[in-house]
């Protein structure tokens, strides 16, 4: 195997060790804990010539340096610890930047959550409050620690973790404790001390209070209603017959390390602790399309206005890490067919490489018909089937799961599909009560309304790095205008503008408002218009929280559905680099505002631009989402718009029975006859 | 086989013959031509008790009469013919209604189109004009007849067919003649006489004119650019490896005639000449959901304002028939896996049953993950895969294809997916010119802008026939309102109204406006709210044509995205029963207006209601749509909203390697190892 590591490749295990070894001396004797050792992607101005050589099949004149971004915490002697970020040039074997991130916090991980839970349950005052709840004898208490979403009530420079209490009624580790939210809440400090304990509102007009109420035994549910794990449920239905995918000649994709090729597509697969799967240098038939594609952030704010519930508002990438929380897809049979897995690499707290196996799966899928035409005069039909390539990751963030798929098509389209599944977050309520910001899902259990907001970062390089964003609408031509020929009132045309400055834009399907990323320097020889790729947005409500709320000020990206910025190295996160207990002013809107008068940074016409699409769902739970939610799908697309000179899938082979081997089913009997004539 | 024919079953071949035999005597000696012999579905008030008995497994007290709807034309002696519609009670063997549809026209079919083309090309004046075009020696001229979309210029009580001229440059019947639109246009009368001939505008400001221009030889294209048929193109790519679906234990669905059962779903499959596939008595786990689901109409108006192009506006169901134009899916390998086909039955012009084989295909498909949760404390993952049932039809309407799929899920959801594919309709343009209402797709060829508007008719019976439409929005709670506790500015609630009267409604994703079909008489025992099903609309621009245009007045349904009406027997078509050359005033808006003051018909709260969803796409062609378009997908959904008491797919078996038999791919080599542990 070559010793050459592509500049987009995630850090290898030996690079992780090397980075840790170079950083350790700077914290000698301070017991540093490594939170992150990850690739610091090369500056784009270094990558552009490198990629150009690579595309031409020539060795690069210069290879960008391999640099690691390292985050370290060191415990304080008596007070809070310190949080540092360092850049380590692995080629030069030198730490080239070191920054003390005062007031910032690293992500929260499951080992810290376990330590918080242990500290919480080990606190005598907590135990006393639990006793006052008079729980059933079989109950065991669970603490679910959450990041504290800034609400203005506490000093956020100190890390505080919220502890939400639940219980299991049966002694099975997979019992669904979310069915039993308890009337108890606590805050735990950085030093793992319980700093506050209180009881939660059980009715609409109640507030936080000091008085424990015994657990209402009427809230005990049948396991049939509360459990999802097969071991705790009645037997499964037996009606589902197996369905298998076979590819007797193997898959159509080829991989060489992290380089993937499939049906004229090529790209580099990346993976990091925070964004999970990232795609680099996405090309089609040798033409450049996207420099980078990634989920940049997500935000899940809850709509219950009563303290302390406004502290539930999760930045699952920035706070927790979509890479760190990625599922091992091999264990769960999450993919079907002929599957290639990719591993990820993280770090232990002592700086050793930690393998995250099978965090990305890659496989083909049939997606129905790609194109068809039947000449009605001859009855000759030509059909091609749409084969797609799927790159999938799944994250678990406490109660919820999110499935993220990139899908590539033979029509040169890309789709990004998000599915939300897992378990609703719950709170308690008195039996018989209702609240206007939640759905009762079991006696005494309410699932509060909340939003899921995702932001897809699209760094285009459509036939090159000088791109523009064209916004087009379809408008009826006027009637009764002597200057306009529209005698039958049916004419319509399009109007468009090219965006000149960074900013946020909104969707409007009533005008067929379309967003096209174009290259004004490359004109399609047939249509006479610039080549481009069009966004197929997912229409959804933007952030409901008030603009002056911390939710809004910390997220920023939830204000508009489409943002456009001028490319800046390392500008990857639309709610800012450090979201944990952030206080606002670090997101995409603030960045835009800060440079609005600097044309060298603010202008986005015929420049290196980045498009950020915010989409998601306002999730007002229904009972069908309980006890585990059937996946809710949200899809974004990107498709060529006058980029090619015709249908790029025209040479896809026609669909034939010889290849498909479909089977005829006759009236319940499987007859085995051939399905079709071609 | 039982002699019992279910009331929802399409007419059998013998019933078709019987209907013809009963009608013929009424037109003795008049050479009647049968256009339609189809089931007239029983009145709902007769079906309700019948279905109730059926659901209880008891024989029905009374079976609704089998009635045929018959449309007949008789030629006129010297002038235009006459068009009749009759209802024939097949049980009583009697014609029970007969109506002369003065001023109305039946659909246009391919045999009539062939007759029109023959008449056109056989006309000496047409041949003289063709000669003036000085076409290349190898050219053969094609006439593509289209229905005349009313523009106010002609008497629509007489049938007129528009003739658009194209040519083939190579002598192959599957050559793409749409690549060569010709400068010639004609009108043909009912009696197959060419009544008008003119030449078309070639520039933006030109108008219809008399002067032929010789064909511009620079418009000759390479076959590589203009052809789609594999025999006329370079060899296909060879990179796509076969992908097959196997179900070693057979499919999970069962059919008994037209009755289909799958994964707690049950329904009756219908099919008719006009709507194609219809679904009846759709139930889940024995509970009633939808009385009827169907595509009710579609409208494809073109946006070129210059005469005669406003005559291009196709009602593909009303004018042509989605059943009549349904593809035989077996010939084209349009479906994959284990497939059951359903046939349809039409009539010949002499009243003999005409089999339409394999017009509906039924098969399962894997749709990724249904639900998943991993307990992060134990690392135990539970995954279920989503198996869906697909019922597919495809229609060819001259140049275009439309693929219509109903998809049923194990989460008790239904999705309706439309894909547009086939060939763009083209017109001519001077080389180098542009028009603001079209895209140049080849030298001298413009593909005009147009819209595709579909209307899905949803006749709900959610736990019974008294339903309501609840429209709900998600609203931020106010800040700085002393009456409202929202101290952190993050609270949000929902507000809703129940629609009281028939009318048209609009979508608004910015408010998360949701449309739920509910039964106010059935309260969910857990949530305390009425059971319901929620619409997942497809967001698209409504009709662009001016409200006073004929396009708008004839379609009506394109004005709003969601319509609600009170159920009326036989009220099935939102642009009216007879769309061919219609003049307006027959659609859903007119029906609503006519009875707006009659509460016994206009009230829609807790009544038998019908919901109609208009959706589609404003299609401004891109070159990638040429010469045949990669399918464009539009999806509508219906999902339970507090209808059940939990996730209806909770008992779906977990995904296991034993059942899935996935295969591990290691770095380009197919290793054959098992994919996952479970």
UniProtKB/TrEMBL annotation, chains A, B:
Enzyme class: oxidoreductase
Needed cofactors: Cu cation
Cofactor remark: Contains 1 topaquinone per subunit.
Domain (Copper amine oxidase catalytic) ranges: 244-649
Pfam families noted in UniProt: Cu_amine_oxid, Cu_amine_oxidN2
Residues found modified as 2',4',5'-topaquinone: 400
Active site positions: 316 (proton acceptor), 400 (schiff-base intermediate with substrate)
Sequence ranges assigned to domain Copper amine oxidase N2-terminal in this UniProt record: 6-74
The keyword Heme is assigned to this record: no
An annotated Gene Ontology molecular function: primary methylamine oxidase activity
Keywords, in A-Z order: Copper, Disulfide bond, Metal-binding, Oxidoreductase, TPQ
PROSITE patterns xrefs: COPPER_AMINE_OXID_1 (PS01164)
Subunit structure: Homodimer.
Protein name: Amine oxidase
Taxonomic source organism: Aspergillus ruber (strain CBS 135680)
């Amino acid at each position: 195997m070559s010793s050459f590591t592509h500049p987009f490749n995630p850090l290898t295990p030996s690079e992780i060790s090397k980075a840790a070894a170079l950083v350790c001396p700077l914290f000698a004797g301070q017991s540093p804990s490594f939170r992150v050792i990850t690739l610091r992607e090369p500056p784009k101005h270094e990558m552009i010539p490198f990629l150009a050589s690579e595309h031409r099949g020539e060795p690069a004149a210069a290879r960008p340096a391999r640099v690691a971004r390292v985050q370290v915490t060191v415990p304080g002697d008596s007070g809070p610890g310190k949080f540092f970020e360092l850049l380590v040039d692995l080629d030069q074997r030198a730490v080239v930047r070191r920054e003390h991130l005062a007031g910032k916090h690293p992500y929260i991980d499951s080992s810290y959550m376990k330590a918080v839970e242990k500290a919480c349950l080990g606190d005598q005052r907590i135990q006393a409050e639990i006793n006052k709840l008079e729980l059933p004898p079989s109950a065991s208490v669970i603490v679910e620690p959450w990041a504290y979403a800034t609400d203005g009530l506490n000093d956020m420079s100190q890390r505080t973790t919220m502890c939400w209490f639940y219980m299991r009624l049966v002694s099975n580790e997979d019992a669904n404790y979310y069915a039993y939210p308890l009337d108890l809440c606590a805050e735990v400090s950085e030093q793992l001390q319980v700093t506050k304990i209180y009881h939660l509102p059980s009715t609409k007009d109640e507030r936080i209070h000091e008085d424990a109420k015994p657990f209402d035994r009427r809230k005990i549910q049948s396991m049939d209603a509360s459990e999802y794990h097969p071991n705790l449920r009645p037997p499964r239905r037996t009606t589902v017959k197996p369905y298998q995918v076979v590819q007797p000649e193997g898959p159509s994709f080829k991989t060489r390390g992290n380089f993937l090729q499939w049906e004229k597509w090529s790209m580099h697969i990346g993976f990091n602790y925070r964004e999970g799967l990232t795609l680099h240098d996405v090309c089609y038939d040798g033409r450049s399309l996207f420099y980078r594609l990634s989920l940049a952030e997500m935000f899940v704010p809850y709509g219950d206005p009563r303290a302390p519930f406004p502290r539930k508002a999760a930045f699952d990438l920035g706070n927790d890490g979509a890479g760190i929380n990625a599922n091992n897809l091999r264990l769960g049979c999450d993919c079907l067919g002929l599957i290639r897995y990719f591993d990820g690499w993280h770090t232990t707290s002592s700086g050793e490489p930690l393998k995250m196996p099978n965090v990305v799966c890659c496989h083909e899928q049939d997606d129905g018909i790609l194109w068809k035409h039947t000449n009605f005069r001859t009855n000759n039909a030509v059909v091609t089937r749409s084969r797609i390539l799927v790159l999938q990751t799944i994250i678990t963030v406490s109660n919820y799961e999110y499935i993220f798929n990139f899908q590539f098509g033979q029509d040169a389209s890309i789709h990004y599909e998000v599915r939300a599944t897992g378990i609703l977050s719950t709170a308690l309520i008195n039996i018989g009560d209702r609240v206007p910001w939640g759905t009762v899902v079991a006696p005494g259990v309410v699932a509060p309304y909340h939003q899921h907001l995702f932001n897809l970062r699209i760094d285009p390089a459509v036939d090159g790095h000088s791109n523009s964003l064209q916004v087009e609408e379809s408008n009826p031509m006027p009637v009764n205008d002597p200057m306009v020929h529209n005698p039958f009132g049916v004419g319509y045309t399009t109007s468009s503008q090219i965006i000149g400055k960074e900013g946020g834009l909104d969707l409007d399907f009533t005008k067929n408002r379309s967003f096209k990323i174009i290259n004004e320097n490359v004109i399609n020889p047939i249509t006479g218009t610039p080549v481009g790729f069009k966004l197929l947005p997912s229409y959804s409500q933007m952030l409901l929280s008030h603009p002056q709320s911390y939710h809004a000020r910390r997220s920023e990206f939830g204000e508009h559905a489409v943002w456009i910025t001028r490319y800046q190295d390392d500008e990857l996160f639309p709610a800012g680099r450090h979201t944990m207990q952030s206080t606002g002013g670090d997101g995409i809107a603030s960045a835009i505002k800060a440079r609005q008068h600097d044309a060298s940074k603010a202008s986005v016409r015929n420049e290196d631009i980045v498009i950020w699409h915010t989409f998601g769902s306002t999730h007002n739970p229904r009972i069908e989402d309980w006890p585990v939610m059937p996946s809710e799908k949200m899809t974004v697309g990107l498709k060529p718009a006058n980029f090619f000179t015709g249908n790029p899938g025209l040479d896809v082979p026609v669909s034939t029975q010889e290849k498909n081997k479909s089977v005829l089913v006759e009236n319940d009997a499987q007859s085995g006859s051939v399905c079709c004539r071609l």
